[in-house]
Amino acid sequence: MNYIKSLMLLSALVLTACNNSEKESPLLTSPEGRDDIVHLSKAQFENAKMEVGQLTEKPFAETVQTSGMIDVPPQSRAVISAFAGGYIKNTPLLVGNKVSKGQRLVTLENPEFITMQQNYLETAEQLSYLKSEYERQRIMFDEKITSQKSFLKAESEYKSNLARYNSFKKNLEMLNINPASVQAGNIVSAVNIYSPIDGNVTQVYVNTGTYVSPADKIMEIMNTDHIHLELKVFEKDLLQLKKGQEILFTVPEASKEIFKGEVHLVGTSIDPNTRIALIHGHIDEKDEQNFTAGMFVEAQIVTGTSDQWALPENAVVEMEGKNYVLLIENENAEEFEILPVEVKIGATYNGFTAIGKSEKFKPETKFLTKGAFVLLQEEGGGHDH
Question: Which Pfam family, any one, appears in the UniProt record (predicted)?
Answer without folding.
Answer: Beta-barrel_RND_2
